[in-house]
């Protein structure tokens, strides 16, 4: 790491008050962003405006944001790799779910995270829904708009999939997708612990994959052999 960003501890030498300040001072090839939904897009744009690629692990971006980032990255001639989760096992869940969706007609996602998480659904759950949408949308027996009572009880619709976000103490990020057919169910679930260790290997994989890429790459699973 060449430099970090922290408004509260900026020293102007190795820790800076903003991404733009850091990139204007230190020559860098890749920006790694694990900040927040409120800051991530501005940080990525600051990198792209300076011809610097980015690895994005922050959640809170939607499909329109990613389309904008893709266009900006192509204009800048650099790459961006974004994933809702940089755990290799979470990436394998994403890949496995996409394969199962070719054969299953119905599914929903349950998104678990800490009580203080500000965005919902999580980036992992949103990415999962959007990836499966590339296969097909799930069959819904009764349309959500036809629900009697509180429509919100059916969760949020993201790329055609219902996502139910649970926010409670003791969770970090857990993502579960439940596939169902007549008389049977199949569940895939990834649970993250409290240490950053699961994300280190995936982040390094993404950093090493940036050179030579142009535009946006979604999902860590796309980098796996």
Describe what this molecule looks like in 3D.
Helix 3 (63-76) links the parallel strand 4 (53-56) and strand 5. The chain is elongated. The strands form three sheets. Strands 7-8-6-9-10 form a five-stranded mixed beta sheet. The protein contains six helices and eleven strands. 31% of the residues lie in helices and 24% in strands. The protein has 225 residues and is of the alpha/beta class. Helix 2 runs parallel beside helix 3 (63-76) and helix 4 (88-101) runs parallel beside helix 5.
Q: What is the β-strand count? A: 11
Put simply, the count of helices is: 6
Task: Give the overall form.
Answer: elongated
Average residue-wise pLDDT:
91
Approximate helicity band? 25-40%
SSE succession: EEHEHEHEHEHEEEEHE
Largest sheet: 5 strands, mixed
| SS class | alpha/beta
Please describe the structure with a list of short key phrases separated by commas or semicolons.
alpha/beta, 225 residues, five-stranded mixed beta sheet, single chain
